[in-house]
Amino acid sequence: MTIDTTVLRPEANGAASSQSASERILSNFARFDAEVKLAESAYAEGELEMAAFYAATAATIATHTHCGIFNSPRLEAILNAIGRQIAPGSNGVKPRERGEFKRVLHVGSELSSVGGLTRMIGRWINADSDRMSSVVLTQHRGEIPEHLTESVRRSGGELVRLNQSIGSRFDWVRALRRIASAYDVIILHIHCEDVIPVLAFADENGLPPVLFLNHADHLFWLGTSVADLVLNLRDAATDISISRRGVEADRNFLLPTIVDSTTRLQSRNDAKSSLGLHPDTVLLLSVARRPKYRSIDGMSFADRHIKLLEKHPQAHLVVVGSGEPDDWQAAKTRVGGRITGLSEVPDPKRYFEAADVYVDSYPFVSSTSMMEAAGYGLPAVTIFTLPDEARIFGINHVGLVGTCLVARTTEEYEAMLDRLVVDAPFRIEKGEAARRAIERFHVSSGWRSHLEAAFQCVRSLPARVNSAVTNDIVERPYMGPPDDMHQDIVGAEPLLPEVKMIYMGALPLRQRIALWSRMRRQGEISGPAKMLRLLLPEWLKRTIKP
């Protein structure tokens, strides 16, 4: 999703803060607002690099520590004004004519080897095989997954890592704009706090249309000001785009998530045998990243399944991605070890092949994994006990609506799982309905028509017109659902000094040294190795160690 989560501190075991929800939102908003004011002050003083730096730190706070807002017109306005100064369109050049799209530029921030976004980009390029597709990454660290590199190569495109080029953030902004001007359409798959594309595409003149993939629909993100069309992956995301992000209704488009067509390599029994399970085992499977299994109100994901597993000794729960949280151990002991928590794996295929029932992550859903499970004909169960206004935390994705089983209470959830464990014909019936829906909407052959409709939609829209910086924008945090429960479900605790360290390497030398000196005086930097590394430019760090 976003920045390196090693610098974030999730609330331990999802325990609620001593503050009320409204107090936390106001406290978080105050931290965000302080960084926005620094950005505004730096912009007013002509320190554009520092203004963009503070915009990034403000956006990072809002992304990971919910502030009661889903977008910031103030930040968008500052970045828009900076972008028009440092990467303007040619004088007198109007927005590009929206003809046939033959060359597609996908822009991402950082792509992990594990996670739905990286796989979606690769699948998108593979499905859109009649077009040439390239990928530009703005702040990637580490190796690029081979499957994505291969997808780009087959399409005839190129893969560019901006932060390996000598220079600072603004140099990368200009490079991105130069690259983008040669393409027919731009797709943004960026992290929520990434300012580089927002700066690069601020001036719409001379650019092709920009489509923004709303993959982090439950979080604050930057980019509304540069999007000709927002691609939402579910209708709850569309609702928030319109009501909370200020995106005009006709600039939203519902695009299903693309998943791979399913090909079994082994039978269910053979797959179970490879995992050391008896063929008569009823395997309950869940697959997601560890943060999606956060404990809530003292109850862990493992705890939720104790009664079921005690009732059915033939049932076994395997969770891929959770690791082995400390607060799962008691539950595992109670059911004789029939709860298995595993680390994330790049390809969980053999677990899907072995499973009988798919169990959604909680408290936050994992829709892509659920779609993958449905491709194997697995029935899926999810639980949603929140108010309808908070359905951004539930399942409401195209092919899953009406096919997955949605429980509104703990009792209903247990009853659904109970029936799926004992009723094999029912499992087959629900799994087959889910499989057909995924084939229709989410697999390449069916998904491609939705992509073409999105392209036709953006061609029919007038070019966006961005606004200039204004001092009269007022942002106020919202206190009701889903905001009041946001922190407990997905919130973390960004440490501001660590956040600054992430972005300072992209500053020019003068600003980098000034910030480094100030942080050192304030005791925010310690240790000679860290001090030296923080002085290095970002491009050098990424070239030495990708």
Q: DSSP helix count?
A: 21
Percentage of residues assigned to helices? 40-55%
- In this structure, how is the largest beta sheet organized? 7 strands, parallel
Mean pLDDT: 92
* Portion in strands: 5-15%
Care to count the β-strands? 13
Helix/sheet category: alpha/beta
Shape: globular
Low-confidence stretches: 1-16
Give the quaternary arrangement of the chains: single chain
Radius of gyration: 24 Å
| Strand order, largest beta sheet | 3-2-1-4-5-6-7
Give the N-to-C terminal Cα separation.
19 Å
Notes on the structure:
The protein is of the alpha/beta class and about 550 residues long. The protein has 21 helices and 13 strands. The strands form 2 sheets. A 7-stranded parallel sheet has the order 3-2-1-4-5-6-7, with helices on both faces. A 6-stranded parallel sheet has the order 10-9-8-11-12-13, with helices on both faces. Helix 4 (about 115-125) crosses helix 16 and helix 13 crosses helix 15. The protein is globular, with a radius of gyration of 24 Å. The relative contact order is 0.14. Residues about 1-15 have low confidence and may be disordered.
Relevant terms:
546 residues, alpha/beta, 7-stranded parallel beta sheet, 6-stranded parallel beta sheet, 21 helices, disordered N terminus
Secondary structure layout plus pairing:
Blueprint: H1 21-44, H2 48-64, H3 73-86, E1 103-108, H4 116-127, E2 132-137, H5 146-155, E3 159-161, H6 169-180, E4 185-189, H7 196-200, E5 210-214, E6 229-232, H8 235-243, E7 252-254, H9 268-274, E8 282-287, H10 306-311, E9 315-320, H11 329-334, E10 339-342, H12 349-354, E11 357-359, H13 367-375, E12 380-383, E13 405-407, H14 410-422, H15 424-441, H16 444-460, H17 483-490, H18 496-504, H19 509-521, H20 528-535, H21 538-544
Parallel strand pairs: 1-2, 1-4, 2-3, 4-5, 5-6, 6-7, 8-9, 8-11, 9-10, 11-12, 12-13
Helix pairs in contact: 1-2, 1-3, 1-17, 2-3, 2-18, 4-5, 4-16, 13-15
